[in-house]
Backbone:
């Protein structure tokens, strides 16, 4: 029990910030974070390689967010921007407001929320969490080539969205 | 074409201030024409984790939801019973009744140990059952 308390203390920041980026919500992550650690606790007896707890933890986080998305979708509390897009409902600023504020960070957060969950996941793991391609492949259980392809595609999409925002910003000045 | 009032090196130097919320009109102009610097700006922003606060006593709340520790299961009593049964079957198959009796006598200590261990196991089951109630 004490060991697990130490594991929670060690990884809780990582869990909360990753959940925040993946769900696009800064608040209300506690229930999801608790679910992450409860699943980790259930899985630990079968987990032999302690050196890769973080990899295992990221995999659980992604699964928990996916499950949450399905749960919200089934209860019609999740909005799909298009068929390939998965977005959690959020009370963030609208595009016009962000344009007026010229707030790049907020615009980026908004753009991330509009990306498909898979794109958001791979961008978060690579840039925010600093995971290498090999580790992302292990976390998502996909081949290395798929990671590279998906990361390239996600990067292109995000740059396209932000490029559009920057152009609008320039015009609005 | 990138804005000529700012080259890429200067633009990269302004990114941090820009992301911190400082108005940088020349950088915005540069970014609108330079994909590489836009990408650099996006990557810098993504590397900054969102400001989140872990609720106080979060770990304690998780620990409170964990199931009580289960003692490790011992397979020794089961193994002893299987061993005894197997031994009996082998000796019976050989058709040597005296050998069966003699061997069982030799192994009476093991029998006693198995019974004792079974008793301990039953006591553990009873303790867990009463604790859950």
Residues:
């Amino acid at each position: 029990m004490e060991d697990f308390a130490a594991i929670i203390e060690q990884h809780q920041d990582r869990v909360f910030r990753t959940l925040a980026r993946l769900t696009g919500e800064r608040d209300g992550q506690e229930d999801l974070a608790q679910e992450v650690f409860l699943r980790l606790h259930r899985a630990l007896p079968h987990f032999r390689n302690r050196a890769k707890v973080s990899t295992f933890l990221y995999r659980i986080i992604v699964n928990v967010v996916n499950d949450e998305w399905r749960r919200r979708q089934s209860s019609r509390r999740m909005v799909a921007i298009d068929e390939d897009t998965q977005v959690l409902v959020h009370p963030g600023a609208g595009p016009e407001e962000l344009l007026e504020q010229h707030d790049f960070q907020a615009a980026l957060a908004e753009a991330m929320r509009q990306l498909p969950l898979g794109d958001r996941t791979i961008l978060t793991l690579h840039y925010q969490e600093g995971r290498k391609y090999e580790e992302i492949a292990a976390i998502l259980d996909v081949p290395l080539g798929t990671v590279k392809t998906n990361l390239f595609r996600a990067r292109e999409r995000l740059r396209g969205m932000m490029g559009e925002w920057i152009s609008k910003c320039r015009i609005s000045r | 074409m990138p804005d000529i009032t700012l080259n890429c090196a200067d633009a990269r130097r302004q990114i941090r201030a820009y992301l911190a919320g400082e108005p940088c009109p020349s950088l915005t102009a540069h970014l609108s024409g330079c994909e590489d610097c836009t990408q650099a700006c996006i990557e810098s922003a993504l590397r900054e984790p969102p400001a989140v606060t872990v609720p106080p006593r979060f770990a304690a709340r998780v620990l409170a939801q964990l199931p009580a520790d289960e003692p490790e299961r011992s397979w020794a009593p089961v193994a002893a019973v299987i061993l005894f049964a197997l031994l009996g079957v082998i000796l019976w198959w050989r058709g040597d009744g005296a050998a069966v009796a003699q061997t069982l006598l030799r192994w009476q200590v093991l029998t006693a140990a198995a019974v004792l261990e079974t008793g301990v196991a039953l006591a553990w089951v009873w303790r867990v059952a009463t604790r859950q109630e």
